[in-house]
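From the pipeline queue, job 12 of 40. The input is one protein chain; the requested action is below.

Action: predict structure.
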Amino acid sequence: MDANALYAEAKQVYEAGNRDESVGLFEQARAAYIAAGDEAQAAAVANDLGVVYYLVGRQDQARQALQDALTTQEKLGNVLGQAKALGNLAQLMNRAGDKEAAEKNYQQAAVLFHQVGERMMEYDTFRALSQMQLQRGRWIEALGAYDFALGAKGGSGALRWFLRIPLKLLRIR
C-alpha cells in the first residue's frame, strides 16, 4: 500500500473511532512518506499522529511527534503547518499542566494563523488561550485574548466594545 492510501485508511479508521488501530496505520503512513522523501506530508502525518498518541494515552510519543512536525514545518517554511503543530503542542502542554509553555505556544499559533489568513483557527486558538487564562485567574489577559478571538471572527462590535472597557481603564488597549 502506498503512503497516500495508508494515510487515507488511517484517517478513516480514526474517524470510525478505532484510535488504537489507527496509530499503527498513521505510523506506517509517516514511514512511507519519509521513505519517499516527502518531508511535508510526513510532517502533516506526524501532527495527526501526535494528536492520536495523546488520545490513546501515549503523551511522551505525542509530544515528540508534534515537536518533530513543528521542526520539519519550520525547516520547510510552512507557516500553516507550524501553527497547527504549535496549537496541538499547546493543548498537550496545557493538559499536562505546563501552563506557561502552553500559553506561549497558543500565542505563537494564533499569530501564525493570522499571518496565513486562517481566521477561524485564529479564533479557536485565542478562545482556548482565553479559557486557559480564566482558569488560571488571569482575568485581564483572558479578556484581551477573547477580544482578539472576536476580532479574528469578525465578532460583535458591541461585545468587543464592552470587553475593552477594563482594558482601556488599565491602559492595556
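Job complete. The radius of gyration is 18 Å.
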